Amino acid sequence: MKCFPTAGVRPYPPRVTSFTAKFWQSLQHGQLVTTRCGACNALTFPPKPVCPHCWADKQEWTTISPNGVLYSYTRIHAAPAQFSQALPYEVGIVDLKENLRVACRLVNTSKETLRLDADVELVAIQYEDGPLLAAIPLQIRRSTDIKFLTDISDMLYMKS
To answer: What is the model's pTM?
Structure first.
């Protein structure tokens, strides 16, 4: 999983618990993990201490692929104060290869790449106070990887 450092702190940091700490530490190191039920083998995302399929509490951590397709998205034009600097911005739902759905911020998008069923990759944006998940279109990432490495802050706040 690709990691992109950026200046500043997360606009709305997640609540890290003793259970979710493993997820956030793995994301900090560029690894996407979630839980797999030891009883029925089902994957869940976000990670859960109890399986929502069979209610077993025997969860194991497993690495999953960051690759998927864009299932849905929306452009946000009105947002809480913490996110106002980034307006407008996109958030989406990504279907991962493991048949899991992840809601996250979409970055480095354009009218050409922001389409349903587009191939995307989850990445970790490394803020000074910790990581957050985001998705980028694979078509763009391949052609602008160097620009992305240097301009992630601009892309987080770029106007569409």
So the answer is: 0.84
Instruction: Give the alpha-carbon dihedral of 25, 29, 32, 34, to 10 degrees.
Output: -20
Quick one: CA dihedral 66, 68, 69, 73, positive or negative?
negative
Long-range pairs for 80-86: beta carbons < 8 A, 24 or more residues apart? 80/12, 82/11, 82/12, 83/11, 83/12, 85/11, 85/157, 86/11, 86/156, 86/157
Three-class SS of residue 81? helix
The band of 156, judged by pLDDT with boundaries at 50, 70 and 90, is low
Least confident stretch, 54-58, 83-87, 90-94: 83-87
Nearest to 53, CA basis, from 33, 39, 64, 32: 39
